Amino acid sequence: MSTEPLLPVYLLTGSDRPKHLRALRRLRGRFAPEAVEQLSAESSSGEDAVAACNALGLFGSGGGARLVIVEAIDRWRKADVEAVAAYVKNPVEGAVLALIAEGTLRNAALVTLCEKHGKVLRYDVPKSSSLPTWVGAELKRAGVNADAEAARALVELVGDDTLALAGEVEKLAAWAGGDAVGCPEVEQLAAPGREAAAWALTDAWGARDLPALLEACELALEKKEPFLLSVGLASHVGRVRAAQALAEEGLGTKEIAARLKMKEFPARKALQHAERYSRAELDSALVRLAELDAAIKGASRLSSELELVRALIDVTQPAETPATRAG
Fold it and tell me: Confidence class of residue 109 from pLDDT cuts 50, 70 and 90?
């Protein structure tokens, strides 16, 4: 796009948003900043987009150029598409219209017109089963020396949001500086894309870091009810207990993940946490979290927040033994 002559209209479709942004960056680079106008189909109609393009013909200087970008055109109605379709047949010289579809286009006529009078750029992310391959390609593009396991770990940690994944790829590239990146580095540096507060809570519990756990709890309570946090932690402790038992049978991470029907990254996390707790401690934690569930549902007169904090302290501190009681 950077060397070929500019066309009057570009249509960007598909689910690969990072590639959309890179294509737009290249396109923007061919215009002066003041000659670029950004619109959104949420607040701008097809007629608004046409008017922005026509502004060059009315007020622009002879050697000028203008780029009009319209996001989320898949939300436009029939009248909006018809207005743009009529313009595309007779565009203003020097004006470039860039249309961005975030979802599926319901009107195929616009695609056909853009193919005829401009260019359609289709960028699709592979299915979730192939997403690690896509991430591997993004890592390679960013100059990150990472193996397939690191790419898979990044997907498992961040999720399937390609923009979030692209951001984490750039972060890894800046940190690595050409050095190799593996699963440990991904797990240390990448930010969980979904349920970040819950991840912080379970990670602090798994590390037996009570100050970090109480801090994570305070932050998590800003977004979630105590009941949901207690259910999430109880579920995690149950997985840790199950992973510990399977590891004692001699199963590896992949086999444990398959047996527990989870991805490898959370299975590795569960095994790491299991190393810091005995079987008796995990059993006691599950009992204590069941008591917390009853307390939150009405068995206690204390606030749910206070009951949650008390339970977190109980399930994180080392179990009391006869020797410690005697001391």
Answer: confident
